[in-house]
Amino acid sequence: MSIPDQKQTSASSTPPYSGLAGWINRRLPVISAFRAEYVDFRVPRNLNGWWNFGAILTLVLGLMLASGIFLAMNYTPTDAGAFLSVEAIERQLSGGWLLRAMHMTGANLFLAALYLHLFRGLYYGSYKAPRELLWLTGLVLMLMVMATAFAGYLLPWGQMSYWGADVITKAVGAIPGIGPTLEHIMTGSDHLGDIFLHRFFVLHFVLAFLIVGVVGMHVAAVHVSGSNNPTGVEPRTPKDTVPFYPYYVSKDLVGLILFAMVFATLMFFWPNMLIEPDNYTPADPMHTPADIEPEWYFLPFYGLLQSVPSKFGGLVAAAGSLLVLFALPWLDRSPVRSMRFRPLCRIGLLGVVCAFIVLADAGKHHAQGGWLIAARLAGLYYFGYFLVFLPLVSRTEKTRPLPSSIAASQGDA
Ligand code: HEM
After folding, report:
1. Is 198 annotated among the ligand-binding residues?
2. pLDDT tens across 376-413, in order?
3. Which of 52, 173, 275, 400 would disulfide-bridge 255, Cβ 3.0–4.6 Å?
4. What is the residue with the minimal CA distance to atom 11 of ligand 1?
């Protein structure tokens, strides 16, 4: 019995597949699905460079998994062996230095691309209906990526790994009620050693693969709602969109090549640029480093953590700064998406970026004097923007006139 080719029987313009492609497609329509989602898929014609970061993130995720698997084959998750095994990868394993440089550079650039990707969504209002679930899956990804990066940073078991773990496990232990139990689940014993490292190695490895699954959902959600665009106006006529191939395949390729050049430059010339020198000293529970500070991408949250006098309060502030983003689609009541047309909210949002940078700077300094005041003011501004300013101003703000269509916004009415 022959199985009908869905596409052959439909009135769509998709060509019928013959030979092996037709045989596969009739049984599992992956070829026609790929064609529908990545060739014929209609995308707004006016996407700018900010829309490259989704493709960039996907590429870096692939590189992280590929390099991570080979690193894991040579890593020993024990108190006595972890630091030495990483040194052996760097110095004795053939090509090991390249694997590690790729993984470290990848981690830094992944987080940088993630923040830019998130900012794009904030600026162009991509979290608004009908893209709420797309936004929420993105935030889940962000939490998973942060947990993976934190677990990964512990694995070399240098001084910063150890003392970073000490700060976080104690902060978790300070949660009223369940804190001590959670701390015990993390550490597995009364000190940070073999059991702890084993658990975080497994967590790091497993989370990385779970992220791939959630990325699948995230990208599926993009394909259901379609991409937003810099005007925030939905496409109305075929003139407003172009097919993904060749237009955005080539545009994404340009973005990927530029990004690959930055990646290669950092990886080959400055692989250790963002690494704390202290982490090349083996973990020593008897000697606390003068300054304990996390990787740059956690600094704003660390700044918040330090700015509140109680450990638990600090944890609530740091976690709350991420959780508040989950409510964003419902906090922002404006019918207009893009900040291009929302002068007051745009200034407010740029203030959030400044507050984030101030918090990061404060996270690098001891929480006292001017830095403490700056961190508290920046924290108040951050929460004030999302919880007070945006809900109030988004209802009343006088927005600039929207273009009648995407094509019209480019003078092609
Ligand atoms: C592992 C991390 C992530 C990967 C691999 C990823 C991948 C992608 C891809 C491939 C796209 C479509 C291309 C594009 O619009 O750039 C996209 C769109 C989108 N992503 Fe992500 N993403 C990630 C994390 C996030 C995060 C943390 C957020 C924010 C909460 C987010 C929010 C969005 C939104 C709102 C869109 C649609 C944007 C629009 O059409 O305007 N993503 N993502």
Report:
1. no
2. 999 999 999 999 999 999 999 999 999 999 999 999 97
3. 52
4. 54
Question: What is the pLDDT confidence band of residue 5, given thresholds at 50, 70 and 90?
Answer: very low
Burial of 226-263, coded b for 16+ CB within 10 Å and e otherwise, reads: bbbbbbbbebeeeebbbebeeebeebbeebbeebeeeb
CA of 117 to the centre of ligand 1 (A): 6
Beta-bridge partners for 44: 241
Residue nearest atom 9 in ligand 1 by C-alpha distance:
54
Q: What is the mean pLDDT of residues 223-240?
A: 97
Reading the block at residue 383, the tokens are 């929460």
Q: How far is CA 79 from the centre of its chain?
A: 30
The answer on pLDDT for 311 being more than 90 is no
The CA distance from 231 to 336, in Å, is: 9
CA of 134 to the centre of ligand 1 (A): 8
Closest CA to 395 of 344, 324, 358: 344
Helical H runs in 125-274? 132-154, 159-173, 179-187, 194-225, 249-269
Structure confidence by residue, pLDDT tens digits, 53-64? 999 999 999 999
Which residue segments constitute the domains of the chain, with CATH numbers given?
A: 30-288 (1.20.810.10), 298-401 (no CATH)
Q: Record the tokens describing residue 127, joined without a space.
A: 């979290």
